[in-house]
Amino acid sequence: MSPLTSSPIVVDSHSDEGSMNCMPSASSAASSTESLGRRKQEFQTHMMSLDGIDMEDDEQDMLFVKYSVDTVYSSYLAARNRVRQYTQLLALLKREEAAWLQRVEKSKEALPGYKPQPEGVVITLQI
Predict the structure, then answer these.
(1) Helix (H, G, I), strand (E, B) or coil at 112
(2) Where does the record place the region Disordered (predicted)?
């Protein structure tokens, strides 16, 4: 049965040609949508009961939900901790970079005419 056939029909008697304009009202369309949703829910519940699936929340379901939430929260805390560690590592590397830059500047003062090798050049040592 179609939801439109079970809804009340509004007749427009003010048409020019004297014909009747049949169309469902807005409130009846909304109520038929709600009714359709309820029927779908009832059907799903019925099918689950035929399959032996219990719709009632029991202690096992609550434990599953609790452990799932705990697992997600633990994963969040671990990720936040990793971000903090990587941030600390980045700060250490930036300090080391600054220290090496100071050493390069000091070494330039020791050898004023020396030009360092450009970046990307591979220097090989022969032993």
Answers:
(1) coil
(2) 1-43
| 74 and 51 in a common domain | no
Which own/partner contact pairs does 67-75 have at CB distance under 8 Å and 24+ positions apart? none
- Grouping H, G, I as helix, E, B as strand and the rest as coil, residue 86 is helix
Q: Give residue-wise pLDDT tens across range 61-82.
A: 889 999 999 999 999 999 999 9
Angle of CA points 34, 35, 40, to nearest 5°: 100
Domain housing 69: 57-111
Residues sharing a CB contact under 8 Å with residue 28, sequence separation 6 or more, in sequence order: 7, 8
Distance, in Å, from the CA atom of 71 to the CA atom of 65, rounded to the nearest integer, reads 10
What pairing do the DSSP bridges indicate for beta strands 9-12 and 21-24?
antiparallel
> Does residue 67 fall inside a structural domain?
yes
| Residue pair 7/28 in contact by the 8 Å Cβ criterion | yes
The top-scoring range by mean pLDDT among 31-40, 83-92, 101-110 is 83-92
Same domain, 14 and 51: yes
Residue 27 corresponds to which tokens in the numbers above?
A: 């409130």
